[in-house]
Amino acid sequence: MITFPRRLALRFGVLSLCILLTALVASTRLADEAVGADVRRCETFAAGAAARRAEPPTGTGPRIVVVGDSWSAGLGLRDPSQAWTSRLEGRVHVDAFSGSGFSAAASPCRGASFAARVERAVEGGADLVVLEGGLNDVDQSVADLRAGFERVLAPLDGLDVVVVGPAAAPARAAGAAWVDTELAVLTGDHGVAYVSTRDLDLPYLSDGLHLTTDGHRAFGEAVATRIAGLAG
């Protein structure tokens, strides 16, 4: 009668240990799968970014360098060279990495942030630098956004810079609002031109985040017009 409860307790302890180990293995597997997915996504985005940089510049005239995210990369388009950047008035060079932003941690991919890429982007000179983004910063802190903004501007001293803020993509409209407001303040504090696009009514793909071909056309034309208006 005395040994029965002890055996029961022992069996219960062994069962609990087995359950715990099973849960630990399962969580580790899920974590490994998540890391693997990030690695594959980063490899895909890096390949797309390299292909975009290798494309010949579109247009003629002043050299315009665009540093941006998936919108500048043309993610979701059959022909990424038809992204909104092709509507800018000048000889346009694009350095775009999907998922990236002003904040260092906006993307999990190494070397993807705007600040990590901007020096390389302007190595050939630039009559105008366009920094396009913000939708990937919506889940970052204000402090991280500000720090990233400071870092990306540092190598651009002496160059003409225009920041193009996030449109109100349905999937991230709420976050786009505060990022737009913050970028307007930051550009004003640093004497940099700002183009807000949150008022634009654009057609999106089914993900509610990326633009259709018509959306890229409309966005590009609106941005080009607003940049031209800054000179006036």
Architecture blueprint of SSEs:
Elements: H1 3-54, E1 63-68, H2 70-73, E2 91-96, H3 114-121, E3 128-132, H4 142-153, E4 161-164, H5 173-190, E5 193-195, H6 213-231
Parallel strand pairs: 1-2, 1-3, 3-4, 4-5
Helix pairs in contact: 3-4, 4-5
Task: Provide a concise account of the structure shown.
The chain has 232 residues and is α/β, with parallel strands linked by helices.
Tell me which oligomeric state these chains represent. single chain
Q: Give the N-to-C terminal Cα separation.
A: 96 Å
Largest sheet, order of strands side by side?
A: 2-1-3-4-5
What name does the CATH topology carry? Rossmann fold
Instruction: Return the CATH architecture.
Output: 3-Layer(aba) Sandwich
**CATH level 1 name:** Alpha Beta
Structural domain count: 1
Radius of gyration: 23 Å
Helix/strand class: alpha/beta
Major sheet size, sense and barrel closure:
5 strands, parallel
- Number of discrete helical segments: 6
- Tell me the number of strands: 5
Percentage of residues in DSSP E strands: 5-15%
Shape: globular
- List the uncertain runs: 25-35
The CATH superfamily bears the name SGNH hydrolase
N-to-C series of helices and strands = HEHEHEHEHEH
